[in-house]
Amino acid sequence: MSQHLLSVLIGLPLLAALAVLCVPRKAVRALPAFSVFAMLVELLFSFVLLSGDYSSARYQFVERAVLVEKLGIHCALGVDGISLWPVLLTTALTPVAWFASCRSITIRIREYAFSFLLLEAGMLGAFVALDLVLFFVFWELMLIPMALIIGVWGGERRVYAATKFFLFNLVGSLLMLAALIYLGVQYQQQTNAYSFDLGKLGELVLPLHAQLWLFAAFALPFAVRVPMFPLHTWLVDVHAEAPTGGSVILAAVLLKLGCYGFLRFAMPLFPLACHRLAPTLAALAIVGIIYGAYCAWVQKDMRRLLAYGSVSQLGLVMLGIFGLTTQGVSGAILQMVNHGISTGALFVLVGVAYERRHTHQLSDFGGLAKVMPNYAVVFVVVALSSMGLPGTNGFIGAFLILAGTYLSEYLGPLGPLYCMLAATGVIWAAIYLLHAVSKIFFGPVSEKNRDLPDLDRREMMVLGPLILLVFWIGLFPNTFLKPMEPSVKAFTQNYLIKIEAGDKNADVRETPSVRADAKGVR
Amino acid sequence: MEFVLQRALLWIVLLPLVGAALNGLLGRRASRAAVQTVAVGSVAGAFALAVAAFCYLVSQRHLGGQNAVLDWTVYRWFSLTVRGVSVPIDVRLVMDSLSAVMALVVTGVGLLVHIYACGYMAKEPSYARFFSYMNLFTASMLVLVLASNFPLMFVGWEGVGLCSYLLIGFWFQTPAFALAGRKAFVVNRIGDFGVLIGMLMLVHATGSFEFEKINHSLNAVTTQYVFTYGAMGVTVATAATLCVLLGCVGKSAQFPLFVWLPDAVAAPTPVCALIFAATTVTSGVYLICRLSSIFAVAPYSMAVVATVGALTALTAASIALVQVDIKRILAYSTVSQLGFMFAALGCGGFAAGFFHLFTHVFFSACLFLGAGSIMHAVGARGDADIRTLGGLRKYLPRTHWTFLASCLAIAGVPLFSGFFSRDQILIGALSVYPYFWFAPWLGSALFVLLAAAAAMTAFYAFRLYFTAFWGEYRGGPAAARDARTHGPRPRGHLEEGDFQVPHESPGSMTWPLMLLGVGAFCAGYLWVGIAHFAPWQQWLGPALGDIGVEASRVAVNKANIGGIVAAALGIGVAWAWYGRPGVETPGRLADQLSDAHGFLRDQWRIDQFYEATVLRASRALALGSAGFDKTIVDGLWTALPVYGVRNLSHLVTRLENGAARASGAVMAVGLMLVVGWYLIPHARLDAQTPQGSVAVNPVLLAATPGLGYQYRWDFDSDGQYETDWQTGPAIIHQYTSERFEPGAVVLLKGAGYQGQITSIKVYPGETLDLETKRLGRWKNEDSRIRYRLPELVGARARIVADQTGLVIRPNGARVTKATRRANPTEEVRVSPGETVHIGEAELTVAGSVRTTVLVKNVFGIQAKDSVQVTLTRSRATAKPMALPGGFQ
Lengths: 522, 888
Fold this sequence. Notes:
The structure holds two protein chains of two kinds. By secondary structure, chain A is mainly α. Chain A contains 22 helices and two strands. Chain B contains 30 helices and 22 strands. In chain B, β15 and β16 (805-809) form a beta hairpin. The longest helix of chain B is centred in the first third of the chain and has 32 residues, at 175-206. Chain B starts with a helix and ends in a 15-residue tail after the last strand. Chains A and B meet through α6, α8, α9, α12 and α16 of A and β1, α5, α6, α28 and β6 of B.
């Protein structure tokens, strides 16, 4: 079983999705329960991943099967410290998203369940694929169900949002496809055999200018997905229109695939190019942090506010990745999980408010702390974790990233500067989140909100585990940091070795003092 | 014993935390008595444990342990890697002499406030929520105090900010109160930003987060620079302390970030006592004391601390002169007293500043609780206008006496606690001048500011006292509503009009008051001590930093006299204007100086200033960003492509109509370009050397890859290709010397830092003179700064190039080739690949060669590119390179 664990993990939601399609019309009422059941079984299976040996950087639960021999396409799957927590995040948050939203879905519930399960399979596959073609297949596989979820079950402008989501993500991934084929052909030219294996392609030696183009082609879809400034505008519209479940999955998991793509593919494959562009990309990440927060502050729609908040927080994640220190990257991975938990929970909470009041406008609320005290407590706790209050999960991630950026030898003197700019994020986050909190919960209660019911048992069941995780990660982060450490170390070291090899001949910097000597003489 | 007490450290923190959790989760369904028991009991337990731990430390000190501490590492939180070394961050609690005093203050005053609140908040519906916050507040403060390292302290630091937010906005249904809470949190966060950066600077320099180690790494923080420009530089000590100071300024409500504190009087009165006396605001002072050794070696930061403190003391005291709401006056008095503490710290009087904190806890808490008692008596809610009070000494005897004791203490009347602590501050200002060597006048200036602030303090304290307690009762808040129009008031603890005649508060409120009043009177004697036993200095001395200045007798006398005169003046004027009935001077003065009066009444218009500048700008920026995002950024990805596609379709339509030959031409050109792009191969050669100049043999040459491309190499660009057509775009080539171009290249390995290389070309027939210059200063591993000079001072070695290499004429410089030193007049010949030293500088003669690649695509069309390669080692001295990735 454990040899095929990863195929089981990908196959189970696929099978469930097929089963959902076969459910007769009469039994549709049982669908939510059935899907939850499938997702929980999936979650239980995914816990087996924790039994792997993460004391080294080696991939665990590796599976390899030939798919197309002539082209060297394999079904290569594996998990290491970098992908472990994103995978678990996926399996944990999918049932949460489903559970939080299925009550409000009234039409085409069968298709909704099908899309959800397909999406889960796609996300898991993308996180564990070690073959570039396979990864691409899963990457594209996610697009369709997600676009459907937005376009069919979304809000008023759902078709616009779905199209936007699809086009933004498609254009990027087409470039990635081109670059991927180029890489395979290049590998064939150098070794006379095709391969798309991540490890093998990593050994290719490519000149800098080729790396730059290839890196750009890979980075674009990933940057769109993260989303990094200025490619983030799709996210805002999509969040504003998607149904609750779609929003939760999108914020909690789908965006993380962008960050993960950088870590797993774009950076190890093209280190020289990334090395050259990292200061610029880090600067963009910082612009994202500040700009996102500023835009969030003046939004009137809760979901738009959270979407811009996501842009801001994921900017921090990207900064950690580009700082390229062990703690920065660990912090970034942890922050991916944290953002998944906190923003996921916030979207669930927004959905809860929507179910009661059928509005997302901040101005329609006020004084809810009086009417729905439990809801207020949960919301405030999650918001605090989102702004990185010490003792909650957000602090650990943000602190590691900021420390990593400050201490990054590789960003050099820019490190402290970047760190300071990014650290202003703690102020901006407090401003926009507390703004939302005070609009929703404080002030007098209006007539329409007077009789809103507090969180019911079902909603507490969904949110309770998330709150526990918030504090668990905040107080005992080593549970999460320890397994990822060897892989992250190997990642940074390999990267630095490749850069140094590229720089070996190029360690030629001009010494102004000596040059001045020579010039003075001529 | 020690074992048990070590664990007790954790319970000191955990008890209030458990209390908070119990009350928060179950309190809504529990009875008031249960809530009360849990809340007061947990803090009482923490207090008892703190007392026990303190007694243990005292006994250890008596047994001779100078640095007796209780220390317990609970578990490893997480860790960082700093400069390749793993730096652990533990949940580790330490109680040393400093944190012991602080823990006693927090739990002790916390306990009194909790007891008081049981009476004060008796009719509050959200009783459990209130006590849950209060317990959380106490717990956060205890974490802050007992943490052994920066990140753990930061947990308490932000926790305190959070609890201030929750408690100030406790009556959240009034939007103004919720706003005040948010303001407190955001301003505190600005400070937290500073602490975060300061912490990272310190860990980068010292490699530790533990306060103990940081305080012992003075060498590291004073010799490393955060920023250098020429000979100027900012040491880590200065930069980090300034960053930390930003945090302390935010948290301890110093100028110019004190704006949050006066609004915080929106909190229920017991909370005010806790925030303004015992907890939040003291944490900034505490943190500076914690890092006192680092602050002591950063005189510029200390000057800033002292100046900020003195300015705050004066500003806040001047505002308090004209305020009319009792809690607002007290809030500004707190700010002003904190300014005194900062001034003391900045003048190097860490013990004195901390002592003022200690005495201030008593009189300030007593004043706030007294104000609460007054408001309870007259049925006021939120705040009370002192002009509606009066004559209360008849009705509230206990409150009156404790209030008077505190006023005497805050005014600095001799024999009261405030006198002793403020005296030390003034002495410190007068003796600090040798330490501020860059501004010797600063100490005297501080003294003048502080003395003026002291006089104002005495005045506003007794203005409050006389107005509230003397004369006749003026009718209470009912009269206030006639005098002023109020905004919506919160639902307070009392219903309006419950009392016609003011009455004394219940025992749960007066007993804490009396205890604090006694403290306000006698806390000062800890400094004075009895017969050569000065407990305060002896107890805290070892824990605090020292700037090494001694107070002279003249300074002591000056300060004594200055302090007493200031107090007498303030109290005298207050009595003359407010102590007797029917004096109209203050009203007349206010009319005559209406501008100044208004300026002070509006609190120096600092809030308005922020509103007009920072807030308005950020709001505009935020609105601008959002608009920019919606139109420009989004438009870039949506509107623009749509526009393009639409026009393209126009084009297509036109073509279909056969109407636009021009368009056809455009299409044709485009098509030709595309075809051309595929027809002509793209040659671009890269020698894996970004500068294209220097390489170590062998060299990896890489040309542009392309589908179906073939490559042919001519390594020396003589027109004859050395290889046949091959498919791989990259090749590793070993150059040998025959192929070098005429013309040598000198590579100078500078003698400076890290031996960086530069290259200068010298062509045949050219000469190059090497002159001596400093190579600038640089640091080696032990961080001492050294200057390294090439040893050719005064000499000019001349380098001449000819067809085969270089000739060096030493002209007196030390020239060494292959460990043999050349005669001063000897000519040294250096061939390509050889190395020679001139002084400390290393010269290698390199070979230079131009390499060409010919690229052919599937159509047989060819293109060329070439690159200049220069080799530091021309002969095959290096090991052959491993062929990467299976190059052919």
